[in-house]
Amino acid sequence: MWQRGRVDASPVDVDLALLGGGGAAALVLAALDRHDVAGLRIAVVDPVHKRGQDRTWAFWGTPGGEFDPVLSASWSRVDVVTPAGRRVLPLAPLRYAMLRSAPVYDRAAAAERRIGAVRIGAPAGALHDDGHRVSVHDPEGRVLLRAGWVLDSRPRPPQRPGRTNWLQHFRGWWLAADRPVFDPDRAVLMDFRTPQPARGVSFGYVLPVSDRYALVEYTEFSPAVLADAAYDAALRGYTGRLGLDLDTLRVREVEHGVIPMTDGPFVTRPSPRVVRLGTAGGATRPSTGFTFSAMLRQADQIARALAAGGPPVPAPAYPRRHRWLDAVALRALDRGHVDGVEFFTRLFDRNPPERVLRFLDGVTTPVEELAVMRSTPWLPMTGAVLGDTVDRLRDRLRRAATGVPGAGSRAAGRAGS
Ligand SMILES: Cc1cc2nc3c(=O)[nH]c(=O)nc-3n(C[C@H](O)[C@H](O)[C@H](O)COP(=O)(O)OP(=O)(O)OC[C@H]3O[C@@H](n4cnc5c(N)ncnc54)[C@H](O)[C@@H]3O)c2cc1C
Question: Which residue from 412, 308, 416, 326 is spatially nearest to 369, judged by alpha carbons?
Answer without folding.
Answer: 326
